[in-house]
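Data availability (excerpt). The following record was deposited with the supplementary files.
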Amino acid sequence: MAIIAIVLGYIVHRENTRRAAEERIKPLGGYIGWRERGPGWLTQMIGRDVFAVPDEVVFMNEPLHDDDLKALSGLEEARHLSIVQNSTFTGNGFRHLTSMTNLESLYIYDVPITDDGASTLPRIPTLRSIELLATVMTDKSLPFIEQFDYVDKIDLGSESLSKDAVRALDTRLPRTEVGWSGQGYGGK
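Predicted structure:
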């Protein structure tokens, strides 16, 4: 009986955490995608929602600000984070990603990520792909990006990033595929 009570307590706690995260993220223009985890027979018997864990978090458009990434606490199992077409996020909020210990991919597109913002991106051992496209970063951000020598792929895009500096970064990161796009931040 005690084991059943513990399991049910865990399920209720996780469900409450999940609901709270959704309530924090939705007003920020965010969406959480879920993946099922657990044995199929038990999932069918109890229900899919009980075994769902966050897989991706997507923020589209406004009103996301840097400190709003605090809302990601409680979503440690999420593997993918995307921020797309936002004029108020500079990247300084990356410092709030330290709790996302399962993060595999970071996709940023048409967001004014600055050099200071790039400097706050934490080293997360599970990270495999970083795409910072259509940003305002300059060559000054590349020393911060260089710390991610363990990722498989880094794609950078900014009118202020020189192709030669990105090529030099590619040379310094031999096991990482480094790509470059001259496309800059489009703004709002």
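Summary of structural features: Helices lie at 2-25, 40-46, 115-119, 142-145, 163-172.
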